[in-house]
Amino acid sequence: MRSQVATGTEVQGGLTVFAASSLTDVFRALGKAFAAQNPGVSVTFNFASSSVLSTQINEGAPADVFASANDAQMQVVTDAGNASSPVMFAANVPVVVVPAKSIGVTSFYDLARPGVRLVLAGPDVPIGAYSRQILIKASQATDGPGPGFSDRVLANLRSNEANVRAVLTKVQLGEADAGIVYRTDAAIVGEEVALIEIPALYNIMASYPVAVTKESKNPTAAEAWIRFLLSPTGQAILEDFGFGPPS
Asked: Do 15 and 42 meet the contact criterion of CB atoms below 8 Å apart?
């Protein structure tokens, strides 16, 4: 069934969606399904780190929808008055990834071992912020690896990458011994990397908000896109790519 507005008019025109890098593959699949239901709409995507996208939107970039990988970067846009009230549409889980044949890093705690080449996304990038929050939680846990754990891990940091896919690529190519990405990103490259779970006591559930931008040229299509994300069809596609339901 095609999405329609209250008047019964079909959704039409161009739709520009700004979305976090970790949404690249699933949003492309969602875009095809949305277009099949709404053949009068042409969907264009701009994928980058949420911090880059929030800056672009606040500087006037032409976006109809903003889908962020955390609340903080969405708030950068809403606090500036450049987006409507967001809704959560998906969740994700950070994991450690290592090269497929790695023997040096076999557990989360090995990230603190001297000499490990660690890459993380920058602290303003959602997965980079989540990574540092996880390390702090581990350092503060009464039965954790100790109060200096975060400092020892960050002493191994070799680079701050622009987005989660850049972290994944460095590990995939063997240019780093370990990185922290989302579970959905690790799944994209399959056996090219090995996945190490982060203990649940320290881990953080990543939440994804989405909103219509204030300067949207096609708010009707933007609202239809968000309804589609929350629909059974949209949620099933998100689940197929490893995303969880909004918490």
From this structure: yes
For residue 47, what are its two tokens?
Answer: 């994928």
Domain hosting residue 168, numbered range: 94-196
Cα(41)–Cα(232) distance, integer angstroms? 20
C-alpha span between 64 and 226 (Å, rounded): 11
To the nearest whole number, what is the mean pLDDT of the chain? 94
Same domain, yes or no, for 22 and 83?
yes
Are residues 226 and 169 located together in one domain of the fold?
A: no
Residue 4 — pLDDT band, cuts 50, 70, 90? very low
Least confident range of 9-13, 81-85, 138-142, 197-201: 9-13
Nearest of 137, 140, 164 to residue 70 by alpha carbon: 164
Q: pTM (2 decimals)? A: 0.91
Closest CA to 172 of 102, 243, 104, 92: 102
Q: Does 202 map to a domain?
A: no
Quick one: 91 exposed, middle or buried, by C-beta within 10 A (0-12, 13-18, 19+)?
Answer: middle
CA distance 99 to 244: 25
Q: Give the E-state strand segments of the chain in sequence order.
A: 13-20, 41-48, 65-67, 87-92, 94-99, 118-121, 157-161, 178-182, 193-196, 206-212
As a whole number of angstroms, the distance between CA 204 and CA 86 comes to 20
Work out whether the CA dihedral 177, 181, 183, 188 comes out positive or negative: negative
Q: How far apart are CA 205 and CA 108, in angstroms?
A: 17
If one counts the domains in the chain, the total is 2
pLDDT at 228 exceeding the cut of 90? yes
